[in-house]
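Sample A.
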Amino acid sequence: YTRVVFMEALLDRVRASMRGLVPATEYDKVYNDECVLSFDSPFSPGGLYVSLRTYLGFGAQHVQAASMRSGETLYVHLQKRRTLRPKSDAPDAAPTKMALGVEGGFSVDGPQYDESTEAALVLMPSGERVPLPCQELPEFVSTCCQAIVTHVGAMQQRKESAVAWEAETLPSKYAEELVQLPPHKKISPDPAAWVCEESGMRENLWLNLSDGHIGSGRRQWDGSGGTNGALNHYEETKKHFPPHGFPLVVKLGTITPHGADVYSYADDENSEVTDPKLAEHLAHWGIDVMRMEKTAQSVTEMNIAANESLELDKITEAGKDLAPLTSRGYLGLNNLGNSCYVNSVLQLLFTLPEYQTLHPAAPAIFATAPSDPTGDLPSQLAKLGGALLGDRYNPGGDGAPPPPPVPEGGEEGPAPEAAVAPRMLISLVGKGHSEFSSSRQQDAAEYLAHLVEAIGRAERARGGRLGDGVAALGELSSFALEERVEAAGQVAYKRVPGSALSLQIPLELASNAAEVAAHEAKEDKRQKLDPAAAPPPDDPVVPLVSFEACLSRYLAVETLENFRGHAGAAKTTRFATFPRVLVVQLSRYYTDADWTAKKMAVAVPVPETLSLEAFRGGGLQPGESPLPDEPNEPAPAPAPAASP
């Protein structure tokens, strides 16, 4: 009798709170897979509480405060558990194309689990529970609860879109009207007859579809690959047949009735392409695709093999007995599909004392958050700071999912992962940006500038929310440069704001230039003697340029052709103000003589400490005469009066 009375009273309170509820539809975002203020999930020891009205999810440590702020009383509590499935004896299917998370590509799935879910309707702030399903509940409330339980989570939707990627190969714009010279030769169908016309290589050969030239593939940074025979020939064709030359080449040995590997060297493509008229273009050189068989690895197969055998020994210290660090401050960030540039920036920022103050400031930030914290940058930064600087999500922490039980006779699963996935923060920062909202790889320096600018806007819009102990994060890396120009015995000064230094790397100042030249000469000799031989196992010798040399080059005297009517003016750059944190980007990409972007193989050791006092500017000095400003442009002559 007591239980019946209690249940009736509980149901009365549920009925009193159900006004205004709407079942979630497929068009709604339901945060039933991650807390909006922490990284708790239904797999965390305390589970996840999802509001029936706002569809926002809260971990056990945040739900009471969220209920008090919003007045919401009805939540669905989700508690999920995993059980490791017995490992199948069948081998994993080998990838057949360069793709992630799609059929035939690299798998992004970890170990396979069976999941179980327990759900309950919870009334806040009392915490009274009604296990689901419950026949006594109003049918409409049960429908709302079921919609929360079965809905695809907002973070799961973003995960699926982020990790699903496939290399896209488009038709070449030059294929439709490809120029082909008269067929002065026929290409033999016998692979033994194929040879690079420059180096004599017999592997990795590419046929130019326009003039029938056979050349080897690109030479890689470690000496492997080819001798650039096909690429060098293309550069020659641009001189004689401008502006595009003969850009399309096909890899010999990959030609079958189903197609072949085609590459475009054109500056506006410079990638793998398809040729809709490939059979016709090959027939011009006597190649019948219906009779050809595959005898060489395709580019896709080579890329797959390279990814499967990728060696990270240099950065993972392979061969050493290393203990994983999972203590406070050593939490990782999961890659969300080409998000390594984001992760590196976030991990860097939270090593700074100013960003670390977001952890103790989090309660005050959450208390002043808007009704939907997923769109509030201070809240999402505090959320990440709490995870990175605390120990809640390390294995065994209060928010970390417990390891799944092992089925009888089965093998133990992998060690618990000490990492979180900052999807909400990444989505918020990238919102409205054509590149950072995509799953494509981006430049870390550009993302850092974008993120700092977004933080600055949030600080100005919501002043004081980041807490008294938090400095203006958007101003941490701001500084001013002083540009001094001397001409005709007079000087002009100008201040230029900045947030990062982009330093060029002067390769001619390498401290090991002699060793680099000797290594390159040795490699050239080896290539000429045996072009098909694999490169030696020893590490390549790369230029070693000091950081001070890069900085000195940036701040060196520059001669200007013309400044305010004066030729040969001397410009020097110094710091007018110094930032608390100096952000430096080393520009390793450059444009080669053939106008293609290339990346330097160079090492630049960064010193532990660096004094910039010698580069401090002082403004106009005693005895200096300021250079007059440029005279204003003469006013335009008045228009003649209109004729009568």
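Sample B.
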Amino acid sequence: MTPKTAIVRIFLFWFLCCSAPLSSVPVVAAADSDSDEACDAPDDVNEYPPPPKSCRLLLSPRPSSSQDIDDDGDRTYGIYSAVSIPKNRPLTPLGGDLVLHLIDVSTSDEHKTSAHVENTVQLQKWKKYGYIQEAATSGHGGNYEGLGDIWTVLPGISMLGASRQQKQGRPNIWASIPENDEASHPRHQSALAGSFALHYNLTHQVTIPGGLEGGDEVLVDRSGWHRKRALMLKSDDTAVNDGSSNNNSKDDTTMSIDHLFSHGTCLDNIYPGKSSNGYGRGALASRFIPSGSIVAPVPVLPLPRDELKFLRLKEWKKVTSFRKRLLKETAGGKSDGEGDVTEDELPLPPDMEWRQQLLLNYCYGHEQSSVLLFPYGVFVNYINHAPSASESTDGPVANVKLQWSERLMNTTTKLDVRSLTPSQLWEQSTPPEGLILELVALKDIKPDEEILLDYGSIWSEAWKEHSDQYPESILKLADDHTLEKEYSPAYIMDDVVTNLRTVEEQTQFPYPENVFTACFYRYDTEATTKSDTVNKGKTEATPWKMSLGLFDMTNLRPCKVISREPANDRFATPQQLKQQGQPPQGKMLYTAIIQNRPGLPANERIPKGTKHIVSGIPRGAFRFVDRPYASDIHLDGAFRHNIGVDEAKIYPEVWLDLKSE
């Protein structure tokens, strides 16, 4: 750098930073203590370490010409491939992201009050613009986590990527069913139980004919394009249904590799794996990351704290009854009129408390703010806690920190929402997209080293209190005889149960109370009436049939096994069957009564009063499913607390609306 260039850069930095009117930039709490500190120019201002050349995926501002192709609202940033990835290969070969579920968030139930409806306004915006989906139709599981509506949150690729409109092209990636387990932290042995997502490793596969090429934008499937094709559902767009050609417009979505590495940030510096610090799952470095480098971009969506409070569907009945009685007492028998309080302003019954969605544990928050920030970057929600190096500790210490990504945020002309008050944030017609933090390495990080972030002192104190009380909680469960109840997660039952018991057998040898059996089966009212199904009054009997797309999670329905028989070769002669003898253990076919699941469309619902019996179902078409509110995320007393960023000084002063005077 020549002396002349250095002088010009210093002048430009002073002009942009120190001479700008205060009203033109957000007032961030970090600058409160020393106003001059913000204008101390670094040695190489505006020079950032470039992404490593081995990076496969990058986040980069999208060209303005492509920002109108997204049918879920504009996405300011896009995911781009820096390498060629063949069809049917994983987009992220080292693993997939978490899946979170919002429980009983329906806003239409008669037992819910208007305040509850208003309490999900921002989440409804998330859903409208494709940031979250309905579990009943997403195909990623979670349908049975509650009795109300379940919404699925898919951080990472699914939320971050743009989505192609059906009339202009097709998505080029697709994700199947995530894995599900308790990460070696069972409920009766670990204080961590119930505090983390059970569904994980949601991995996207490339589906576009010819695969992705270097510079191509990754386009996710939010409209159910792949599912509709797999389920053979009709579509108005025959060109898209054909799927034989690449309909993506390279002019709209493709960037040069040089441009991506000049303006983008690497998305695959980290990958999900086993935590080396006893947390179960964690985020690990996929390559050497030098100190001061950007480890990962962290896009965030603002959300009011109150929107993560919820009650179970049936609890609203009790709340409504209590509030109506209390309203009558406090109003002297009047239900309306001047001076009366509304039902929504009344408290919950004395023996009831608001529950907190698991999503809270993954949000960043400040003790003095009603604003939460949900991070939806790739794999960033796997990152665990460790104290900072300045704290006295013998264990691991944090090796990354959070800061605003001015590099990415300054590439857009959209409103910087950091200058808005919380109420102004919530008045925005769309989710405030475009807020991006970044994780920066505090030291050199070796390949496969776990990435750790300091969650803050307030979080640490809350966790210590929870973990210290955990042994007492277990003793209380023992006193209440809760531990005597047999419990086995559904995924364990699927692993260990080879031959399924009939309903009659379960009267003597029942399964654990927390699970039930379900079958992959597609019922269509029109198809059933036209088939060779035998109808006897209110009973329908039909054979099980394998079909394309059958093992989609939306086809998983409750079912009860009523009989089983050996799964002999259906084409064998009687003499051959006699010679074959008993088939190997587990090779059985089952007859079951199929039932409806919540959220089914009208044409897939078995008519009320009809017993629908299906025969010849293989064991592979059955799954054990946790009953509503039975999995670990519903445990009473499970840890709930946002990740603290108070000490990180990233919250603007205008967001600190809970700050005491």
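B remarks: Confidence is low (pLDDT under 50) at residues 2-46, 108-115, 234-251, 582-586. The first strand starts at residue 57 and ends at 61.
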